[in-house]
């Protein structure tokens, strides 16, 4: 079901300063996405790649409503995984599957209260 650790996402109030900091530690920015906020402003996600190509990525984001770290797991089929797990009473679904630029995303809370983001097709 879970195939790999996709990324760890961190909140930052200043995307540019954080990108420069992680670049000074050897990471490379290799993608950036801007998304709208309800206020008409935008927020940014920036993907930072480690020198080891087999490594997961670090994602920096500045959404004021998401001031936390999150762990993302890759699954082949987000909607299928949601359907397979939705009958379980020990999982709280914070967000049901929704489409993104690269596939689908769902957000779940495990019984230990850790929150995980499922990403995939």
Automatic annotation (TrEMBL):
Tell me the InterPro entries matching this sequence.
Glyas_Bleomycin-R_OHBP_Dase (IPR029068), Glyas_Fos-R_dOase_dom (IPR004360), VOC_core (IPR037523)
Q: What sequence ranges are listed for the domain VOC?
A: 4-121
Taxonomy, superkingdom: Bacteria
Among PROSITE patterns, the record links this protein to: VOC (PS51819)
Gene3D superfamilies registered for this protein in UniProt: 2,3-Dihydroxybiphenyl 1,2-Dioxygenase, domain 1
Query: What SUPFAM superfamilies does the record tag this protein with?
Result: Glyoxalase/Bleomycin resistance protein/Dihydroxybiphenyl dioxygenase
Which parts pass through the membrane?
Answer: none
What is the name of the protein in this document? VOC family protein
Q: Which organism encodes this protein?
A: Paenibacillus thiaminolyticus (Bacillus thiaminolyticus)
Source organism phylogeny: Bacteria, Bacillati, Bacillota, Bacilli, Bacillales
